[in-house]
Amino acid sequence: MTRSTRQREQQAAETEESKEDVRECPECGSEDLVKSSDRGELVCNECGLVLEEEKIDPGPEWRAFNHQERQEKSRVGAPTTQTMHDKGLTTTIDWKDKDAYGRSISSKKRSQMHRLRKWQERIRTKDAGERNLQFALSEIDRMASALGVPRSVREVASVIYRRALKEDLIRGRSIEGVATSALYASCRKEGIPRSLEEISEVSRVERKEIGRTYRYISQELGLEMKPVDPKKYVPRFSSELELSEEVQSKANEIIETTAEKGLLSGKSPTGYAAAAIYAASLLCNEKKTQREVADVAQVTEVTIRNRYQEQIEAMGIHH
Known about the structure:
By secondary structure, the chain is mainly α.
């Protein structure tokens, strides 16, 4: 190594050290330094002095001020997603028979595009495993839409189903049953309360099979599921019954107080929440019948009566 080369390397190292040593603003002495990701600069938050510039900017070279401009200028597609069997990395041939300028294409080109579109659909799934996955993920998407759960639940359900497929847990079970169980597990994982009855209403399999398959895959995949908190059902049930905030807070108070005394152990969370809402509606003079509450919570009136009696006794209320 020549002397000049060594000097250059030494100077570069000193420059890097001096950059790393910048911990306060030389202008105002403030230590509140902010790295600007959009412009690649180190800026003092107090006086606005630019301490470092010309850093590598990982963002695009264009700027957009609203969603429409961002969509027009972006040269990439949507991010990858677990909810599609190919993670969204497939090629899509548009059904519109028009060119890039919006002009209609010739009949020869139309027939060619029709053939390409047909073969594209055929080669998207190369084997039975991918066809299985494609059908299961479309089922999860359909049921999640019917239940009105957020996008994160669909992503988690898709990951659980992919793990079950990889571990060969699908063998001997229906695709719909495993897909529904994965969705139920993801609802519990994400803290979005949906009962087995609600899940079975939008599914094509029976409640008993969903419960059996759910227990099997959660055990085999080691999914650690915490018991569902009945308080998570209170806002939705109260909203459907058109009850006030006062009733909701009273129902939550009843659940908290009685759960501390050990009444919740071994009880269905939906039935427990429904009974607390019924008791709270009576206490707040917004009476709802047991039948109305039972229909919303999808439990029996007997369950509500039993839980209600236990709860008011534990609260020391004589109604």
